[in-house]
Amino acid sequence: MFVTELGWLKRVNIVKAVANGLDYMHHDCSPPIIHRDISIANILLDSDYEAHISDFGTSKLLKLDSSNWTAIAQTPMAISRQLAYTMVVTDKCDVYSFGIIALEVIMGKHPGELPTLSADYLVSSNVGDSRIPLPSPQVEKKVNLVEIAIVSCRDLNSEESPSKVDQ
What positions does the domain Protein kinase occupy (predicted)? Predict the structure, then answer.
């Protein structure tokens, strides 16, 4: 696929589709499903560039009335610090990983290539993919909303990170 085929609006729509999928898994399924390995490798695109979450082999049904201890099953770059420190699975583990995916989709490369994932750096830097033309002002607003979501998803304080990514 040529980089220019995956323009800004398609990238925003990919991020939105993943957010919608996670929202469904976390809030509309009973019991909620925690994927535990949300990574770019587990997001499939169909012929219309519609994103679909795949590989539920490590997913876990969330038991609402008990603790949800687990072994780490995520791609190393996408592991939330909350999961790494507590070994307790919550929907916020997937939300953190979603932030990493969103960053990778917008950047067009792996976030490991950034010097830091600090909020200050992400807000002050243009993390967009420089290989494609700048977005139109209307699309730029949508890209900026994705960048705001990225910062909120990677919040180190799990109480402040969102449990649901606003559409």
Answer: 1-167
pLDDT of residue 84: 47
Q: What is the mean pLDDT of each run of 10 residues along the chain (167 residues)?
A: 75 97 94 89 95 89 59 50 58 86 88 70 67 88 88 65 54
Question: What angle is formed at CA 90 by the lines to CA 145 and CA 112, rounded to 5 degrees?
Answer: 55
The single residue listed with the structure tokens 């219309």 is 48
What residues are labeled active site? Answer: 37
Q: Beta strands 43-45 and 51-53: pairing type?
A: antiparallel
Question: Distance between CA atoms of 147 and 153, rounded to whole angstroms?
Answer: 10
- d(Cα 99, Cα 30) in Å, to the nearest integer? 24
* H/E element, 150: helix 137-153
Rounded Cα gap, residues 118 and 11, in angstroms:
22
Q: CA 54: distance to chain centroid?
A: 14
Q: In whole angstroms, what is the distance from residue 69 CA to residue 71 CA?
A: 7
**Residues forming a β-bridge with 34:** 60
State the pTM of this model: 0.78
For tokens 């049904």, name the residue: 61
